[in-house]
Amino acid sequence: MIAILDFGGQYTRLIARRLRELGVYTEILPPDVSAERLRGLQPGGLVLSGGPASIYDQGAPRADPGILGLGVPVLGICYGMHWLAQQEGGVVERAQQQEYGKAELTSYGGDLFQGIEGEFVAWMSHGDSVVQLPQGYAVSAATRDTPVAAFERPAARRYGVQFHPEVVHTPKGTQVLDNFASLAGLQRDWNNDQILDRLIAEVRERVGSDRVLLAVSGGVDSSALALLLARAIGPQLTAVLVDHGLLRLGEREQVEASLSALKVPLVTVDARETFLRALAGVSDPEQKRKIIGREFIAAFSQEARLRGPFRYLAQGTLYPDVIESAGGAGSSGIKSHHNVGGLPEDLDFELLEPFRHLFKDEVRELAALLGLPDTLRLRHPFPGPGLAVRVLGEVTAERLDLARRTDDIFISALREFGLYDQVWQALTVLTDLRSVGVMGDHRTYSYTVALRAVTSVDGMTADWARLPDDFLNTVANRIVSQVHQINRVVYDISTKPPSTIEWE
Ligand code: XMP
Question: What distance in angstroms lies between residue 374's CA and the mean position of ligand 1's atoms?
């Protein structure tokens, strides 16, 4: 395992992903994790990440100097390099000018660069630089503006790079990380087959002969988890799909068919009427979300009592959630996101979170191994409260039907035009805005639908997708001709921030 100390850099997760792609398991830890705790984790190497601070800033993150006494190889990246340099007695200075962007290494060599030849383009993003080497260190790369773009002390297996080897803008950076993993002598045993075997064994050992309850939504995480658990413990699993009536066209049937075909013991709860009744007359977005959360828990708890007892509640928690809550960043509180938290006290489950060390794309790859069809596996994200947050204002059966049909037209056309995989998420919003139109010889006064399609990496920030005119034209025509209550279609060109992806 390689432990990555996170000094707050925007690329820290990427370092973790890259090393995992190279077959090495990684864990991200807080920057000030104690040497004691690290020793207990028995890492085979340490990576000190980059970060936004200058080493001279007040309150700049510091690692426990004891980590250098663990005797394992260390790679400092950017800020991590500065910390290492300073700790070892070198000098770091604030540069006159920030270096930002691509730079070519004018020379390079040494252990980290083994096997690399030719031009080496490196992505730089720093204010400070190492200006005097610590004793025992040698320069191993330079650029025109940065004489110490990398350094090394091979005898102690300590290395530093000023550039970011983890980003795609450093095309040969993966080789640098690969070399570090080799210098650390680490086994390359982190691959999908192994992960799957390991997860199945862990689940079996923990669960024994007890029973496990899981809520599935049709999303890739809960579906993959259902498949994993079905494979690990078969009939000891009960997967519950709560149909709240806020799903997309044909979604319930699709989830049922896919999971049943893969032998997941699945129960569907038809709670459509209960949800509609609870939502009647409510138009405030937060209120709607709270009601849906509450009703979901009620429906799910009822099923748990009916089919119980269960010892475990399985959840598809992913590694980024774990890192975030450990870092205390938590959720921003902008929208109350909904999951199976807040269950009543009499349902006292132990949590089972087999994916808590995995990234989303690792789960997607596992899902493929487990046989989840690509239609579900590569699906755009869909919010827990479903179409309710895409029907502005009051949610009624009629308005849900409009949202469902327009969504289906938009998404089907994206697939038809081969654009589905080029956007991160796409949706339609049924607004409560009516406007005047003309159809045949008649004046109409009907609703406006907004199309929203975004590109994004993780949903935290997003840009609107530049979809072709003829595609948008086709979708708009299909919507107004097939859905008579709609006479106007607009395309949302807002970015996040300041907007959000969903409208509610
Ligand atoms: P926003 O609208 O906040 O959405 O920009 C970011 C991403 O999160 C999804 N989303 C949710 N997912 N429960 C979820 O599981 C929710 O309550 C929820 N609200 C928004 C949204 O679809 C987008 O992908």
Answer: 22
298 and 223 share one domain: yes
Are 131 and 213 in a shared domain? no
Residue 461 structural domain: 397-491
Q: Are 368 and 413 members of one domain?
A: no
State the pTM of this model: 0.85
User: Which two structure tokens, joined as six digits, stand for 322?
Assistant: 């774990």
Rounded Cα–Cα distance for residues 431 and 448 (Å): 6
Residue 411 in tokens: 């998404």
Cα separation, 321 vs 23, in Å, equals 22
In order along its 504 residues, the chain shows pLDDT tens digits of: 999 999 998 899 899 999 999 999 999 999 999 999 999 999 999 999 999 999 999 999 999 999 999 999 999 999 999 999 999 999 999 877 677 889 999 999 999 999 999 999 999 988 899 999 999 999 999 999 899 999 999 999 999 999 999 998 999 999 999 999 999 999 999 999 999 999 999 999 999 999 999 999 989 999 999 999 999 999 999 999 999 999 999 999 999 999 999 999 999 999 999 999 999 999 999 999 999 999 999 999 999 999 999 999 999 999 888 876 655 333 334 444 444 567 888 888 999 999 999 988 899 999 999 999 998 999 999 999 999 999 999 999 999 999 999 999 999 999 999 999 999 999 999 999 999 999 888 999 999 999 999 999 888 889 999 999 999 999 999 999 999 999 999 999 999 999 999 999
Same domain, 7 and 153: yes
Q: Which is the closest atom of ligand 1 to the Cα of 496?
A: 5
Q: Of the residues 130, 149, 184, which one is the last residue of a structural domain?
A: 184
**285 and 420 housed in the same domain:** no
Residue whose CA is closest, atom 7 of ligand 1? 459
Q: Atom 3 in ligand 1: which residue has the minimum CA distance? A: 500
Geometric angle at alpha carbon 402, from 397 and 406, rounded to 5°: 145
Domain count, the chain: 3
How many residues are present in the chain? Answer: 504
Helix 220-233 and helix 360-369, axial crossing angle in degrees, nearest 10: 50
Decide whether any atom of ligand 1 lies within 6 Å of the 173 Cβ. no
